[in-house]
Amino acid sequence: MIDLLKVFRTKSRLFYLFLITLGLIGSFTNMGILMLINEAFSGKATFLTSSGIPGYAVFVFLILVSFVSTAVFQNYMVALTNSVMFSLELSVIKKVRTASYESFEKMGAEKIYAAIGDTRILSRVPEIFVTLINSLVTIVCSFLYFFWISPLACLVVLLLMSVLLVVYLYRNGKIEKDLNKVRDLQDVYYFSLRELLGGFRQIRISWLRNNNIYNRHILHNRNKSKDLSTQVSKKYVSNELTGVYSWYLVLGLVIYLIPAIFKTNSGELAAFITTVLFMMSPVSRLIMVIPFYATLRIAVERIGKIDEQLEVDALPDPTAGNFTREFNTLRFEDIHYRYMAEDSSSFTLELEDFTVSKGEIIFIVGGNGCGKTTFINLLTALCRAQGGKVFIDEEEVDWLTYAAFSNNMAVVYTNQVLFQENYDDHDMSASNRRLLELEHMLNLKGILKINVEENRADVNLSRGQQKRLALLLALLEDKPIVVLDEWAAEQDPRNKKLFYTEWLQEMKRIGKTVIAVTHDEDFFHVADRVVRFEYGKIIADTCITREPA
Length: 549
Ligand SMILES: Nc1ncnc2c1ncn2[C@@H]1O[C@H](COP(=O)(O)OP(=O)(O)OP(=O)(O)O)[C@@H](O)[C@H]1O
Fold this sequence. Notes:
The protein is α/β, with parallel strands linked by helices. The protein is 61% helix and 12% strand.
């Protein structure tokens, strides 16, 4: 759970000090101004002017103090507000960076986008604090002054105000439920947007699909959200209006009922009325601020949930250092992994005893749904095994150490995303001999376009070419282990043949360990081992013997 106060405290140690100081200055100036106004009405001097200082001088002084302190505090708050917003936004992104693949998949990108949107609401907290402190201080001071003039009259007003406040808060609580529903609709809306934008081509090509996603999902969701938001806003406005107008009830009580009950003189009456009028603006500001709490609580809850869910099976922090490590063997013993599905029929992958030795070419084969990709996700520590042991060079390591070790793997997944930016810091210039060699070997000469100024490759290529570029970039990473998930599936026959008969052998020659998922039976003979999966288990692990050349 994100600790809001901690965020504020770490952002500024002066935060509480500023709040208290503003509160004290506020009480001092508010009380003073209120007393000066009543002095002017009643003609009676108070301790403020009894020393001979003219009232106007005290008035100017108090206003100046109030102005300067508020200006200083506001500037401080502007800086703090921006700082808090950045911190919260980045805290969500930091959690995503170390999340396990499974928790990320389960959550869905749309919830993360929505949570980042929520952090904007939280950024208003400092501004709301100022309003809250200012208003509360003015109201408390006004009541103290009221109490000083007439304790009984003050208690009657206080009682009425408390009743009005309880009614107001009760109605507000009911609105909060609807607000939660609006926020749920927002999550569903982001989900549809992801489908629309991610599957743009499929949506664009089919009118039926196009109409259905728009009418049944997006438009339907937005209409529901619009109606519910309108209802919520109307309820809020009505509650606010009732809250503000109830204040006239208090004013009426002070003007007509209190003088009749307590037999007040005209001076006291003037003081009562001025005090009530003085409180009017802070009370309405306070009423406006209260609904914000509902929105804030919902936002904090949602960010907290994201935080908790992404925390599950978190991986090592990528900023924690360099994980490069040589190895001779990797061994998995009694490893099992089960998808966290609600029904009991969920798929389980089991590795009773499986070893990868340095320099091997291992093919992972088997029918659709037998667990090959799940195995790759475990091997690359994208998912965390629920049990079993992992050994690096026969030394048992815990899962976090293994997850850190997985940084020694260069992976090309089936639906690999080719980043536009060069996040790997590869040298893409013509002086990089390795780049030129790989470009030549992978038949990318004349195809690959390098933006020399920005040191990155243009990724607008055909699918097969993109896969070759992905392999080129993976080999440029120069990691000891190369993992490929159905890499050759989109290659033309010539490149496919070259991949199996030459490129893989070249990788082996330079010392790489290659683990490749494949369905290409015609080339199984080029591997050192063929590991066959069925229903989540290894049913055969065959060493391929080759005739000496
Ligand atoms: N995110 C998931 N949640 C629940 N079950 C899943 C999930 N992903 C895969 N599965 C199930 O796990 C099993 C193995 O899936 P996996 O993707 O590992 O198969 P595969 O051997 O790679 O198949 P293919 O050859 O089609 O790529 C399947 O039965 C699938 O339904």
